[in-house]
């Protein structure tokens, strides 16, 4: 578990390259905001969160699956991640931030992701 990164993951780096290529500048991992968001655009009051599908499980997705062993450990951990994510997003919105969540499974289609990011940041 020590080798699993929480920052600079490959999905996050892909999104960062796309956004930077569009000419936007951002802050990374602002610890003073709830959940330590991945990309913060202070002037726009917008935030982009990049979630891995395994660690932040969601509906039917090929990357989002339940572990087969040690269920007594993994199920509460992954469910806790979901609950914490929801609470952090709620708190960010209460503070006046607009939040976009990009999931790992959405990174594969770079064209639609670029369009989605550009429309969000306008």
Key phrases:
alpha+beta; 4 strands; four-stranded mixed sheet; globular; 122 residues; Endonuclease, Chain A
Account of the 3D structure:
This protein is an alpha+beta fold. It has a single domain (10-23, 49-121), classed as Endonuclease, Chain A (3-Layer(aba) Sandwich), CATH 3.40.960. Helices cover 39% and strands 14% of the residues. It has helices at residues 10-21, 71-94, 110-121; strands spanning 27-28, 39-41, 46-51, 98-103. It has a four-stranded mixed sheet, with helices on both faces. The longest helix has 24 residues, at 71-94.
Helix content estimate: 25-40%
Considering the protein shown, what is the CATH homologous superfamily? VSR Endonuclease
Q: What is the percentage of strand-forming residues?
A: 5-15%
How many H/I helical runs?
Answer: 3
Give me the side-by-side strand order of the main sheet. 1-2-3-4
What overall geometry do the principal axes of the alpha carbons give? globular
SSE pattern, N- to C-terminal: HEEEHEH
Low-pLDDT stretches are none
Alpha carbon gyration radius: 15 Å
Which structural class do you get from the secondary structure elements? Answer: alpha+beta
What is the tally of beta strands?
Answer: 4
């Amino acid at each position: 578990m020590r080798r699993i990164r929480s920052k600079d993951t490959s999905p996050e780096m892909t999104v960062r390259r796309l956004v930077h290529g569009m000419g936007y500048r951002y802050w990374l991992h602002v610890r003073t905001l709830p959940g330590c968001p991945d990309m913060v655009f202070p002037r726009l009051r917008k935030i982009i969160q990049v979630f891995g599908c395994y660690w932040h499980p969601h509906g039917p997705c090929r990357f989002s699956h339940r572990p087969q062993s040690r269920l007594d450990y993994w199920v509460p951990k992954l469910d806790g991640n979901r609950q914490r994510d929801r609470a952090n997003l709620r708190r960010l919105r209460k503070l006046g931030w607009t939040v976009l969540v990009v999931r790992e499974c959405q990174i594969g289609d770079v064209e639609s992701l670029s369009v989605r990011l550009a429309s969000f940041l306008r």
